[in-house]
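Hi C.,

You asked whether I'd gotten around to modeling the 551-residue construct. I have! Everything is below, sequence then structure, no commentary in between.
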Amino acid sequence: NIEMTRQAYALDRIETHAFPADTGIEAVEPANNQTTLENIRLWDWRALQDTLRQIQEIRTYYDFPGIDIDRYEVGSSVRQMMLAARELNVDKLPQSSRNWINEKLIYTHGYGVTMNPVNGFTPEGLPTLVLSNMPIQSTIPGLTVTRPEIYFGELTNTDVYVKTRQKEFNYPQGDANNLTSYQGNGGVRLGGWLRRTLIALDRGDLAKLPFSDDVNSESRLLMRRRLSERVQELAPFLTLDPDPYVVVGEDGRLYWLMDAFTTSDSYPYARRYTLGNDRINYIRNSVKILIDAYTGETTFYVFDTHDPVIAAYRAVFPGLFTDAAAMPAAVRKHVRYPELLLNVQAAVYGLYHMTNPDVFYNREDLWSVATEVVMPDQRQQVMEPNFVLMTLPGERSTEFIAILPFTPANRNNLIGWIAGRSDGEHYGEAVVYDFPKTKLIDGPSQIEARIDQNAQLSGQLSLWNQQGSHVRRGSLIVIPIGRALLYAEPIYLQADRSPMPELRLVVLAVQDRLAYGPTFESAMAALFGTAPSMLSAQVSPVAPAARPTSA
């Protein structure tokens, strides 16, 4: 059971190393880890999503369904960025605008993305946006979006007709609107009256489509536009990652990348675990799916040629799959280790890192993924993978890595961490670092307790929680750096009248020291002893700005 379970979840491929987890501040080795320090994520994705909905939705019928983390080349360096696609949600159209022409012919697509560095803040505590607004504005030379329209996305769950006599709404522009017409080759051509009637019958649009004067023979139907539905229709035998992420291509187009998995519940002697609504005992991230946000063109790239399950499907559907080597190099740079796979492997590894049958049977060294406190309801939940740009111990190059820390079962201190590698020849590899069992390493809940017990911090947080505002604490991030662990937590202030949090404090900690400041730089100076910890003297309890008016 131990041997076969480790094979089934690819745990036998995981390399294990010792990590010293030293406690002194000098163990951080800041001079050798500048890239990691410059890319520590201080924007909690939930806080960023709420802020973007206030400052970048522009109109009420737009929405940002998710926040994605990726890396992009900026000048001569690689920076970690957070992206959000601005999608159209037809359910948010005013009731007076809910008619067939608007929903099927005019309001057909979302528009553009926002992008900001993971630790970029304005003096007011808002995100430093490098891509924003409508039309899209860029603050980085060479980073442009030339085809910002999003016809296929996470929210696009309706059919639309394009290349019609009606101009499509593109984006708001002052008192008027910018209009456009679809220029792509996606979708199904409607053709003559009989073909159009058959399509209308299939799509449940028999009352309107055959009789519309706006539709002609060259018009096209775009259907199955939601990413999960589109991919599931093409390959229902694959298990999909529920969170696709948007990519800004070097050609200026927007793409979606989605991870797909082959699974089974019949791997001999292997323990079953729950994945969604299924019970599985085998998983491989064999396929990466690239979807053009404008045309809907969908390509399946096989990344694990050693997986016998995908080999069988590929033999049955040879025209569906493409070799990984055929993926454009500009897109290949954004492929990453899937969060879903790392979560599954971490859950299994907590038990199956024990390979001695006696130790395994008695559960003498059982591990769990660390938990964190989620604000504002103070509930405990298992930590999500954190993407970090860092140099692994013993390595020389900086990599984009997904990390999860472990704690011993029913205890709060850390015992190790697992990392999924995303770059270059190491793509798809996982590595585990074990902490010494002779020392106690603080876990996330213990660091949270240290923050709460700091007299000056707790007093200031209590003050901010009054007079029409409240404190919102971001996720605590655990980052292996040098020979030590660095803990980082952003703290936001949010006015009760506006759901727009603004960064007001950064808390940093190592095993034997805790420091804080109004900015990351001031917190770092306090941590390394070059300045005292301090709270911003300019913060007032109702600092967040009022909600901006819609254009």
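If it helps when you're writing up: The chain has 13 helices and 35 strands.

Thanks,
B.
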